[in-house]
Every structure is written in structure tokens, then in C-alpha cells.
Design brief:
Blueprint (H helix, E strand, L loop, with lengths): L1 E3 L22 E3 L21 E3 L21 E3 L21 E3 L21 E3 L21 E3 L10 H5 L6 E3 L9 H4 L8 E3 L21 E3 L9 H5 L7 E3 L10 H7 L5 E3 L11
Parallel strand pairs: 1-2, 2-3, 3-4, 4-5, 5-6, 6-7, 7-8, 8-9, 9-10, 10-11, 11-12
Length: about 280
């Protein structure tokens, strides 16, 4: 059963509102209300709940053990709130959580180690926060993550130790940060990566050995950087590449050997906004 309560004027949910052991309620959407705080008694009785959406409210914190009654929850959405801090017990009691989305909050790098209790997490969305760096204990004990979204933060570099904590990442979104060519050295820790988005960064070149280890990429987005035509040589190391986006760079020619190297697997090639001229084709 899905209970939809979004787009209302709720400022709170009285304690024990759901205290009837409502096993049939599996999903609750309380997004786009005016909730300013949450506590454990709000959710008592929702013993069958697997999905909870609290996005676009006015939450500023995640009190300790506030989800303790939601032992079966798999998906938790907290996007679009104003949460700057977490605590070590913010997510206690929901160790089986598979997906956590906290896009558009105020989280910094200091708060990320508090996520380490979520050892079953496979999808983590942290888009549009205030993360400037990854520390050594970022993502510690979170080796099950397969999809990681860090788009729209303030990253200037990554941390190979932090990435080593997430060896099973296959989909990584680093778009809209301030990363440069050094990012490719850190990314060597991710040997199973299939989709990588590095659009809208400050990448000026791709080292020739950038993909010698993690050559499993199928989808690569390098649009809106500062790349030149030298990028073609580095891409020869990607035998499974199906989609390549190089829009809005300075890649102003399309060498024949580059096309030959990619033609067997490539399905989508986008070169919009590069200043290509007829004599370079």
C-alpha cells in the first residue's frame, strides 16, 4: 500500500499517528510539506514500511535513532531540506537501508563518516551539498555501494583511500565540481566502473594511462571541460565504450584512427559545441 501525503501543509506528525502495526503500508510520501523536525514516535507502527520520502521539507537535523522503528526500510529520501550535520546514530536501526538520497542539503565532508553504519547501502546520492574533500574514513565500511552521486559539490580532488572503501562502484557522477586531470589517478581504485560523469569540471587533459586499470567503462561524459583533440589517444584504452560525450570542449578534429578504434562498440558520440570545421573531418 502507498500512502501519499505530499504537497500539503504538515508541520509535524503527532506521535503514534501510525501506531497500529500497519503492515500493509509499504511506501509513504510526505514530501513537499513543512516538517521542521522528526522523531522516532512519528513512525512507530510502520513495521512493513520499505520506502519513506521526506524530501522538500524544512528539516535541519536527523536526530539519533529517529528511524529505529523502520526495520524493513530500503529507500530513504531526504532531498531538498536544510540538513548541515549528522550524528553517529542518525541512521541507527536501519542497517538494511539500500538507497539513501540527501541531495540539496548543506552537508560537508565532516559529516560523511556518520554514514558508515549503513553497510548495506548500494545507492548514495549526495548531489548539491557542500562537500569539498573526501577524507580517508569517508565511505568506510560501505563497500556495497554501486551508485555514487557527488555532482554539484565543491570537490577539487578525490582521495584514493576513500575510493578504495567503495570498490564495487559501477556508476559515478562527479559532474559540476572543480576537478582537474589529477582525478584520473584517484579513479584507478574503481576497477568495475561502467558509467563516469565528469562534465562541467576543469579537466584540461586525460593522461594516456588514465584507463589502463579501469577499462570497463561503457558510458563516459567529459562535456564542458577544457579538453583538446589529444583526448582521442587516451580513449583508445576503452574497448567497451558505448557512449561518449565530449560536448563544449576544444576537440576540433575527428581523426580517422580514433573512429576506427571506437567503431566496434560505440553507439553514441556527441561532439556538440567544439568548433569543428569541414577540413577537420
Amino acid at each position: 500500500m502507498l500512502l501519499e501525503m505530499q504537497n500539503n501543509l504538515l508541520t509535524t506528525i503527532p506521535s503514534r499517528t501510525f501506531d497500529y502495526e500497519l503492515e500493509k503500508i509499504e511506501e509513504i510520501d510526505i514530501s513537499n510539506n513543512q516538517l521542521a523536525d522528526i522523531h522516532a514516535d512519528m513512525f512507530k507502527g510502520l513495521i512493513g514500511l520499505t520506502t519513506l520520502d521526506l524530501s522538500d521539507n524544512k528539516l535541519t537535523s536527523i536526530p539519533g535513532s529517529c528511524f529505529m522503528h523502520l526495520s524493513k526500510i530500503q529507500n530513504l529520501y531526504l532531498d531538498g531540506n536544510n540538513i548541515p550535520r549528522l550524528s553517529s546514530d542518525s541512521f541507527s536501526g536501519i542497517a538494511h537501508l539500500a538507497q539513501l538520497s540527501m541531495n540539496k542539503n548543506q552537508l560537508t565532508a565532516r559529516e560523511l563518516p556518520h554514514l558508515s553504519a549503513l553497510r548495506s547501502l548500494s545507492i548514495l546520492n549526495l548531489e548539491n551539498n557542500r562537500i569539498q574533500e573526501l577524507t580517508d574514513n569517508t565511505f568506510q565500511h560501505m563497500g556495497n555501494i554501486s551508485t555514487l552521486n557527488l555532482r554539484g559539490n565543491q570537490l577539487t580532488r578525490l582521495n584514493p583511500v576513500a575510493l578504495r572503501n567503495t570498490p564495487n562502484v559501477t556508476h559515478l557522477d562527479l559532474g559540476e565540481n572543480s576537478l582537474s586531470a589529477g582525478v584520473f589517478g584517484d579513479l584507478r581504485q574503481l576497477r568495475r566502473i561502467e558509467s563516469l560523469k565528469l562534465d562541467k569540471n576543469q579537466v584540461e587533459m586525460v593522461p594516456l594511462d588514465a584507463f589502463t586499470v579501469n577499462n570497463t567503462l561503457e558510458d563516459l561524459d567529459l562535456s564542458s571541460n577544457r579538453l583538446t583533440s589529444s583526448v582521442w589517444m587516451s580513449l583508445q584504452m576503452l574497448p567497451f565504450l558505448r557512449s561518449l560525450t565530449l560536448d563544449d570542449n576544444r576537440v576540433n578534429d575527428l581523426p580517422l584512427d580514433a573512429v576506427n578504434d571506437l567503431k566496434d562498440t560505440l553507439e553514441v558520440l556527441s561532439l556538440k559545441g567544439n568548433g569543428l570545421t569541414s577540413d577537420k573531418l
